[in-house]
Specification:
Number of strands: 5
Number of helices: 8
Structural class: alpha/beta
CATH architecture: 3-Layer(aba) Sandwich
Helix content: 40-55%
CATH class: Alpha Beta
Strand order of the largest sheet: 2-1-3-4-5
Strand content: 5-15%
Number of domains: 1
CATH superfamily: Carbonic anhydrase
Radius of gyration: 19 Å
Distance between the termini: 35 Å
CATH topology: Beta-carbonic Anhydrase, Chain A
Largest sheet: 5 strands, mixed
Length: about 210
């Protein structure tokens, strides 16, 4: 949505959502195979993958991977960070549906990672306590990169540091899922669950899967 088309008030935004849902309901009679599958999804779901992604509106997971209704079990949180609620959601999907793949999906120009980098470059930067809690979860993956970048006394290239930090943050989340839950660790060690990291490029639309 462009800035010009953006609703001026919350009430206008709500009306747009209502109209969008009405169009969706009308489409349920479509011959599209995904719409024809909807009735069976009322009783059950069998997602092929669990995606822990960022809340960024520019990264709509089902569209990025060209998947339809019921195909992905998606958990979205700013900075694709790992916290107990995210771990619990993944445990649920892996155990209840037997889904064997988890993808931690970061993306270029991530605002949450950028905020974390900014706090390291400018320690006086202040955020609300709730946003700070997200920044604090990202900080360990960024701190060492920042220390290396400043070790020679030169100015830090903030954009490069953000780019590297995004991938470091994804890898840290992957490690936390593999080793921060007994249930997920057991599934991973037995070969019943694969946990991988990936980065979505906002400019190209490509997803790059990262080495462990």
């Amino acid at each position: 949505m462009t800035a010009e088309n953006r609703p001026a008030t919350g009430a206008e935004a709500l009306e747009m959502l209502k109209q969008g849902n009405a169009r969706y309901v009308d489409s349920l009679t479509s011959t599209d195979e995904y719409m024809q599958r909807r009735p069976e999804l009322v009783k059950d779901q069998n997602p092929l993958a669990i995606i822990l992604g960022c809340s960024d509106a520019r990264v709509p997971v089902e569209i990025v991977f060209d998947q339809g209704l019921g195909d992905l079990f998606v958990i979205r949180v700013a900075g694709n960070v790992v916290a107990p609620s995210q771990i619990g959601s993944i445990e649920f999907a892996a155990e209840a549906f037997g889904t064997q793949l988890v993808v931690v999906l970061g993306h270029s120009k991530c605002g949450a990672v950028t905020a974390c980098v900014e706090t390291l470059i400018n320690p006086d930067q202040n955020y609300s306590p709730n946003l700070q809690s997200i920044v604090d979860r990202i900080r360990p993956s960024v701190y060492n990169l920042h220390e290396l970048a400043t070790a020679n006394g030169q100015d830090v290239d903030a954009d490069e540091l953000v780019d590297r930090s995004i991938r470091a943050n994804v890898r840290m989340s992957v490690s936390q899922l593999k080793h921060g839950s007994r249930a997920l660790e057991d599934l991973t060690n037995s070969g019943q669950l694969l946990v991988v990291g990936a980065e979505y490029d906002l400019e190209t639309g490509k997803v790059r899967f990262l080495d462990s």
